[in-house]
Amino acid sequence: MLKKKKRRKLNKKKLFLVIIVFAIILALIFKIFTFAFSLIKPDNNQTKEKVKTAQEIENEEERKINITIDPAKGGKNKGLATKDGGMYEKDINLEIAKLIKNNLEKHSDVNVKLTRAYDDDLSLEDRKKIINENKTDILISVRLNGQSSSDEASGIDTYYNSENVKSEVKKNSNISNVEAKNTNKDLKNSNKQDSDSKADSEYDGDSTKNKDDRKPLSKYLASSVQTTTLSFIDMKDRGVVKNDIDILSYVKMPAIVMHCGFISNKADAEKLENNKHRSDIANGISEGTLLFIDNYRGEIFKDRINYR
């Protein structure tokens, strides 16, 4: 006769431990999945953006500084060529202008536009129209200097306007003749100190007649750009000069013409053909412009009443 097997007694302590361990494992698994899911699922409180009203967007845009870069020449109006004929004025101007734009538009508090982005020959009237349509607060015209009878003159200078606009652009104005006259006038002012002294005295005389009692923001802009650019490049400092040449005669906002060197001078021309040198010039103009904005932002906003 077979003996009955004895039943094993249930170990309650072991069972209790197993249940506890199992519960802990489940809790850990639950926490892991919850944490993972929280990483995948976006936080509505953080991702939900407030929808801006049209007025808020408009106000934000009004707080930005509008900068227009004006590369001179273009199209059939090539300008002078470097000694080896490798580059024309129009090409150098445009390349520097584009580099300035690329630098400045990295900053969210400015809007930057070009009067021309391609090889176009724009009339003075066309450029003035673009500048006004852009609601320009700062105008920077990029140009080169040149001599027809000599190659001695060299270096960079910055002209600034008197901020007193003429009533209208002269019809059929010959820009080339205007440039030639002003280049000759500029070459006579080779003494930097005399030029600066003359510019200061001229401006002081004009300021007493200005019914708006405007601050000389164009002069501040010119000084900032000239000084900063010279810290980036090794070229002769020809100073800043008050002279309403070319587009400066027809705009009222702070505006400058930056002569980036003499294309008729062999040493200047060789530098202007160099990619790094053009980049350094653009960096200097960009940094000088940003420094001006940082120092005079409030004044720029106040000054808008005079040209908008």
From TrEMBL:
The chain crosses the membrane at residues 15-40. Residues 128-290 form the MurNAc-LAA domain. This is N-acetylmuramoyl-L-alanine amidase. The keyword Membrane applies. Residues 168-217 are annotated as: Disordered. Residues 172-181 have a biased composition (Polar residues). It comes from Peptostreptococcus equinus. SUPFAM superfamilies: Zn-dependent exopeptidases. SMART domains: Ami_3. The lineage of its organism: Bacteria, Bacillati, Bacillota, Clostridia, Peptostreptococcales. Residues 182-216 have a biased composition (Basic and acidic residues). PANTHER family: N-ACETYLMURAMOYL-L-ALANINE AMIDASE, N-ACETYLMURAMOYL-L-ALANINE AMIDASE AMIC. Keywords: Hydrolase, Membrane, Transmembrane, Transmembrane helix.
